[in-house]
Design a protein that fits this description.
55% helix; 12 strands; 5-stranded mixed β-sheet; single chain; alpha+beta; 9 helices; 5-stranded antiparallel β-sheet
């Protein structure tokens, strides 16, 4: 009982009960229509046959009088196969003249059209229902013409019984189907609830088992698992940021404190230089925290002002921005883009992501090196490519550098906080895209793939 009670109280079972009620009403309506159509047809057919015989006997009376009418009734009573037809001709004292009834039905008044229904006494069985029409052919004669409708009544009872049993079986099958449906849905929902409980308990690696089907629950499962992946990614990012902030910001904060403390010892002539260095250190820290806030804003999805834009135009704008800097470092900057490459995205974020990539390429490519910035359609997707001839990134560290504050040992001496590629990765994820780091032989090639508009 304890196992059944939650099932009975579930929303899915209530929906199944509603479906059961609608289904039962449909079955009842169907059986009612069958009952009305069949029994009504038989009743109309019987009334039509009685009316036709009434007309025939009336014509017989008009043609031959009472004697001819009595003779015709006697012939019909004798030829009555199965005893289903009823005939009775009586005089003014209601005494029988001809027919197969012994007496006129008692205590039965005809309706406005002359129809009566009464119980017919039959030998060897109980009273049987009969329907007849009262007719006065002429004088003081009374004529009763009818049918034994016990077969119709039996058929009507059969339809009523079938309707009752049909409804009963329908309700039983509906209850069984509702329990089965509720149990199936409850079992699938319970897997989701157990996974959610485990995640709330701290196990961020738990995922909802997938059945491999392609129904609504499977699509919900995939979306929830993607949501859990995103939550785990953000939580890992928070833990990594906490560790890396403690590691990477300790040095600039220590240096800033030393400079401020050193101000007490330097003379007035050197104090301005120390202040400028301290301000530069503070600006570097502010830029780092600004980048962190920017990444958090992008990853949270709160910054999502999408519009239709052309990646080719974006690439050309970034190329014009960095062409003087590349020329100053004696580097060759090659810009290429398709004429029309529309996407739906945030232009400011994509512009910043592309400038981060080009800035890294200019920073790490040697003097006389080459840098290529391009936008093209590849396999139905839009792709931004930034390639340089610098030292590149080892294959085993390409995933790691997409995280916050991760910098290669060879880059520790150069300015930066290790947040540039993290922002690029966050922008790609916001646009349902991805970042691929590949070997440019020599150097690094970064591919930012985005869905086309």
């Amino acid at each position: 009982m304890r196992a059944v009670r939650p099932l009975l109280e579930s929303a899915t079972f209530r929906v199944a009960l509603l479906y059961m009620a609608l289904f039962a009403l449909s079955v009842a309506a169907l059986f009612s229509f069958i009952h009305y159509a069949t029994t009504g047809y038989l009743a109309r057919q019987t009334d039509a046959a009685i009316a036709q015989e009434t007309a025939e006997l009336a014509n017989r009376y008009r043609a031959g009088g009472v004697i001819a009418l009595a003779r015709e009734i006697t012939n019909k009573s004798t030829a009555n196969v199965g005893g289903r037809s009823i005939y009775l001709l009586v005089d003014e004292d209601m005494e029988p003249i001809a027919g197969n009834l012994n007496r006129w039905p008692e205590s039965v008044e005809p309706d406005t059209e002359g129809w009566i229904e009464f119980a017919l006494s039959a030998a060897g069985s109980g009273p049987q229902p009969a329907r007849a029409r009262v007719f006065r052919p002429g004088g003081r004669l009374h004529l009763l013409i009818g049918r034994n409708v016990s077969e119709q009544q039996a058929f009507r009872n059969l339809i009523v019984g079938a309707t009752g049993w049909g409804l009963l079986f329908t309700l039983l099958l509906a209850v069984f189907g509702g329990l089965l449906l509720s149990r199936t849905i409850a079992r699938r929902l319970e897997r989701i609830n157990r996974t959610a409980h485990d995640v709330m308990a701290g196990d961020l690696n738990r995922r909802i088992p997938q059945s491999g089907a392609d129904d609504e629950f499977e699509r919900l499962t995939r979306n929830l698992n993607r949501m859990l992946d995103q939550i785990q990614y953000l939580m890992d990012g928070v833990r990594q940021v906490s560790d890396n902030i403690a590691h990477d910001l300790r040095t600039p904060l220590t240096r800033l404190r030393w400079r401020l403390d050193h101000l007490r010892e330097v003379d007035a002539n050197d104090r301005r230089e120390v202040l400028d260095q301290a301000i530069a250190d503070a600006d570097g820290l502010l830029n780092t925290f600004h980048a962190l806030l920017r990444i958090a804003e992008v990853e949270s999805g709160s910054r999502k002002r999408f519009a239709r834009l052309d990646l080719g135009e974006l690439v050309r704008d970034v190329g014009e921005l960095y062409e003087p800097l590349a020329a100053e470092r004696e580097q060759s900057l090659d810009v290429g883009a398709d004429e029309q490459l529309p996407v739906q995205g945030d232009r400011d974020l994509l512009f910043q992501a592309l400038t981060n990539l080009v800035d890294n390429a200019v920073k790490y490519a040697p003097a006389g090196g080459t840098i290529r910035v391009a936008a093209a359609a590849v396999d139905g997707a839009a792709e931004l490519v930034v390639a340089d001839s610098g030292p590149g990134i080892p294959a085993d560290q390409r995933e790691a550098v997409l995280q916050r504050f991760v910098r290669l040992e060879s880059s520790r001496g150069s300015p930066g906080s290790g947040l540039g590629l993290s922002l690029v990765n966050a922008v790609a994820r916001l646009h349902d895209g991805r970042v691929l780091l590949e070997d440019n032989e020599p150097g690094l090639r970064v591919r930012l793939q985005l869905p086309r508009a």
